[in-house]
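Researcher: Good morning. I'm working through a list of sequences from a screen, and I'd like to move beyond sequence-only analysis. For each chain I'm collecting a predicted structure so we can compare shapes side by side. This is the next one on the list. No need for commentary yet; just the structure.
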Amino acid sequence: MRRTAVALLALACAACGPPSVWRGLSPDHRTAFEVLSSDGRSCVRIGLAPRTCYDAVALQHFTFSKDSRSVAFPVREGDEWLVVHDGRPGPAAQAIGAIALSTDGARLAYAALRDGAWHVVLNGAYGEPFDAVFSGSLTFDPSGRRVAFAAERDGRAVAVIDGRAGPGHDGIGQLTFSPDGWHVAYVARDGVTARLVVDGTPGAEHDEISEFRFAPSGSATAYLARDGEGWFMIHGDTRVGPYATARALAYAAGGDITFVAGDGATERVVVNGRPGPAFHSMEAPAFARSGVAWGYIGHDSTMSTVILNGEVLDAREWASDLVIAPDGSRYAYVARRDGAASVVHDRGEASFDLVVDRTLVFTRGGSWACLVGDGKRQKLYVVVEDHLTRREFDWIRFAQVVQGQAAGATPPDLQTEILRSWVAAEAELLPTRRP
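Model: Good morning. Structure tokens for this chain:
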């Protein structure tokens, strides 16, 4: 029986009761913080800075920037809530919602309730009022210069982009900036139809749109849509399908469009409209961030097949979790046989008692890393290729982080993302044999 990362996370969280002291880490794991009770107050300490105490702290909205250099969190003083950004308190509000920081932490946005209406506060300034700001919609573009969110006004959903509200719809989802930040798109639902809206221009009507992706540059998009009983991949005037199922849509760095299509009995990867070999089930393809390297793993009843750049690389009793280095120069995946596990990579194979699913990553230095189990010690460790030692997995702290970050999100997807990020951050802290 496979032990998955999600199952292990569930065990971790189930084992932890409410903590008397809440401890966490920045995304790069180089800055620790804690929140503890003292004389009826909630006191926060970040790194080596002095403690600051408040009447209450909203732990679930403790937010670091991606570069780990900036932090923001909501606190209550008396009857008022405010957001503290790098030690500086913002304007008062009746309540605080989701918080977003730009990648470098220079810009802060969050939802705030004032005088019975919800606003988005951007860099300390209140925006226009709305009946609600949709959870999970507040986002900066990659450069941090633009901000967007979805809100409700007079019973209609609107996309608010750079402070300007668009037309009303019955519902709005997947509000997303393009990788270059110049374009924005979302799925709008009106009645029984859905449309992809790109830079304010609505596309064709469909029964359902499950996901869309921007091209690596520009405003071009591809999306998966259902019309009647069939699913299609749509890109400009190109329409590929129908299929019984379609998922895992992606643009490769070289511009190829891929997705996983199913006929109810088998699945296959479709690349630029061309279907690959069929398997009983498939894992989502993996891609390099640059170059054209990509691959996937297909499963049949007795074998897993690893395919890299369209060619069969390996066949194993069981394989999973294919990852490709950002520059496309390396690959690694997990294999299992007779109860033993190993990491198979382009330079060899390393064996372990257990390798936790969905934890394999490549570090910035080009080495693979993952979470492994030691049967004799009954412990989990982060290990890194060519490194001197391993770091014991901190169940308690990790469970606290998951509990804090999982609020309002899809648990399996978020847990996998958090776990991979955790392993990657821990791996960067290990000493290496390399000079």
